[in-house]
């Protein structure tokens, strides 16, 4: 384990984990799943926005198409791996091993716990609410809500804990694609926002300028800030 002032790094299984600790007691605890880096850019963006009252746990080195996908789905591009449905397995690792170790390192009991992510990790954040009581809030930035049968799953199952606050965002050009699957992303995100609103969650939906790959760091930080 590497310690550096408010930053702790440790590994569990093959996951590379970084905890940015709040100097405050009982600060909210936010999980951010990311493809490979340690989230330093997102944490700095949050600091620039004046958000320091949080413990940010960044989990990296994720097997993206496996760990973040709820079930099998063929690849949407010919040269990419299929989605192999490892979300339940990864969620168990997160809940049973990663979170307990990280929570030993922070001061006090978190005011609330949130789960956040971009793209497939945004899809995973929504899925996690159906599988565990651990999280109180969620932020899904450019979430892959085009995923096969996901909307049906959300509407035909109950969250284990209905989030009290939810943030959804999307780029305003994300649905402008010839791919018939990806094309559904804006309609689905808007529909899910309304669905959770009707269930009683406080929901923010935000449309950002650009496509899926525009300002990912800033969008991620904005989403985390919105649920604090």
TrEMBL record:
The entry's keywords: Hydrolase
Organism annotation: Lachnoanaerobaculum umeaense
Domain of life: Bacteria
Protein name in UniProt: Alpha/beta hydrolase
Sample GO molecular function, one term: hydrolase activity
Species classification: Bacteria, Bacillati, Bacillota, Clostridia, Lachnospirales
Record bears the keyword Magnesium: no
